C-alpha cells in the first residue's frame, strides 16, 4: 500500500467516525402526537388563512409537508395527500380548463384524507384544521343508561 492510498484510507476513516458521531444528532424528528401538535400549533395561523397568491400556496405546501414529516404513521399519508393538493394548486393554469379540472379532481380525491387529518388534529391536538380554533374533545365517551327492567314474581 503506497503513501497516497494510506492517506485516502485515513481520510475515509475520519469521515466514517465523524458521521458516526454527528449523524445520530441529525436523526429524524420523532413521529409522536406531542411533536405533531407542537408543529401544528406553530403553523396553524398561516395554514388557516386562505391563500391569495402562489407564495402563500407554497407556504401551505411547506406546512403540510412538515406535518407529514412529523405525523404518526397512521395519518402520514393523509397529510401527504393534502400537501399534494396544494402542490397541484401551485401549478394550476387558471386559463386552462383541463388544468383546473385536474385540481378539482385532486381536491375531491383527497376529501377522505382531509376528513381523517381533521379528525386526528381535533382529537389529538384539540385544533380544527379548517379554522385553527380550539375544539373541545371529550376525554371519555358518555355513559349510556338503559332502563331497568323489573320482573314480577
The structure class reads mainly alpha
How much strand content do the residues show? under 5%
User: Tally of extended strands?
Assistant: 0
- Report how far the terminal alpha carbons are from each other: 102 Å
* Global mean pLDDT: 81
Helix content: 55-70%
User: What is the molecular shape?
Assistant: globular
The helix count comes to 6
Q: What is the H/E order?
A: HHHHHH
Spatial extent as radius of gyration: 25 Å
Low-confidence stretches: 7-25
For this entry, what is the oligomeric state of its chains? single chain
**The biggest beta sheet, please?**
none
Explain this structure to me?
Helix content is 65%, strand content 0%. The longest helix is centred in the N-terminal third of the chain and has 20 residues, at 3-22. It is mainly α and 153 residues long.
Amino acid at each position: 500500500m503506497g503513501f497516497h492510498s494510506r492517506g485516502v484510507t485515513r481520510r475515509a476513516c475520519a469521515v466514517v467516525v465523524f458521521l458516526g458521531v454527528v449523524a445520530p444528532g441529525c436523526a429524524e424528528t420523532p413521529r409522536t402526537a406531542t411533536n405533531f401538535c407542537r408543529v401544528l400549533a406553530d403553523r396553524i395561523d398561516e395554514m388557516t388563512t386562505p391563500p391569495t397568491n402562489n407564495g402563500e400556496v407554497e407556504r401551505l405546501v411547506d406546512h403540510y409537508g412538515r406535518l407529514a414529516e412529523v405525523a404518526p404513521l397512521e395519518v402520514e399519508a393523509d397529510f401527504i395527500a393534502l400537501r399534494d393538493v396544494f402542490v397541484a394548486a401551485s401549478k394550476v393554469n387558471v386559463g386552462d380548463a383541463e388544468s383546473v379540472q385536474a385540481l378539482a379532481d385532486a381536491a375531491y380525491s383527497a376529501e377522505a384524507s382531509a376528513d381523517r387529518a381533521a379528525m386526528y388534529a381535533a382529537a389529538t391536538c384539540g385544533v380544527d384544521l379548517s379554522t385553527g380554533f380550539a375544539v373541545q374533545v371529550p376525554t371519555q365517551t358518555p355513559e349510556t343508561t338503559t332502563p331497568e327492567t323489573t320482573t314480577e314474581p
